[in-house]
Design goal:
The chain has 116 residues and is mainly α. It has 2 domains: 1-32, no CATH class; 33-113, no CATH class. It has 5 helices and 2 strands, in the order αααααββ. β1 (84-86) and β2 form a beta hairpin. The longest helix has 14 residues, at 34-47. It is elongated and about 60 Å long.
Amino acid sequence: MQLPTADLDEHGHARLSYQQAEALFTKASGGATLHQLRHSALTHDAERGTGTPMLMARSGHTSVRSLAKYARVSAEALARYPGWTCNGTGTHAKPVRGRPSRGARGPAGLGGAGLS
């Protein structure tokens, strides 16, 4: 069977469909899904301090509110930013007193984006 050129990679190998890739990944990872991998990648980027505009560009989200559903920063990661606190869910951050100093803006700026 001859595949269309658009369905071949640069080496002439057939590309996987999303469903095929999902099945292989789920089997190899012991049950994790590609959607969970997407959540994890965005969360880890946010915890490393990647800015909101970059997270939005990488994820394809156009709303900070929808991005916040994916990038769920943990309380432990948030604790690395002085002056910030967590409500226990890992999804909302607020300055302890007023606006934080420039160096303590919190992971990915999500706390400063009005997501309370």
